[in-house]
Amino acid sequence: MEANSSKETIITVAGKETTTAAAPTPCRWNPTKEQIDMLENLYKQGVRTPTADQIQEITTKLQTFGHIEGKNVFYWFQNHKARQRQKQKQDHLSYFHQYYLHHNHHHPTVPPGIYPVPHHPNGPYLYLYLFYINNIEKMG
What is the rounded CA–CA span in Å between residue 140 and residue 78? Predict the structure, then answer.
């Protein structure tokens, strides 16, 4: 058998190479509500970067609700984690912005040695946000 025929897909997840026999599906994966619910529940339970074996197990369970491939599960977790981080950073920036607008009727003064990011809409607030995010990422 040819190693990479048009009906096979080779993906590498967590260092394991997996060959999947794929039906020709020119469309993007369109998850069902049940698939999304199950993936979100797994994420809430702490699954962030599933192993290749976990991806295969999750995919098998999700196939009862509709078409899905291992790569869809892999990319869903990658994208969901990135979006959650992005949302958390935006929420923190909004919090700092509201806090300083409420507590300082004028622009807050920037401590010596810390410089606001030029040409940024949140100017003086951004340095606090970046400091906070940098420290959160070191702790987490």
Answer: 17
Task: Report the first-to-last Cα separation within the chain, whole angstroms.
Answer: 47
51-103: pLDDT as tens digits: 999 999 999 999 999 999 999 999 999 999 999 999 988 888 887 777 766 66
Chain mean position to CA 47: 12
Torsion angle, CA of 79/83/86/88, rounded to 10 degrees?
A: -130
In terms of Cα–Cα distance, which of 72, 57, 77 is closest to 22?
Answer: 72
Helix (H) or strand (E) holding 131: helix 123-139
Handedness of CA 65, 68, 70, 73 (dihedral sign): negative
CA 3 to chain centroid: 32
For residue 28 the two structure tokens come to 């993007």
pTM of model > 0.85? no
Going from the C-alpha of 113 to that of each of 1, 32, 78, 127, 128, the distances in angstroms are 65, 52, 36, 11, 13
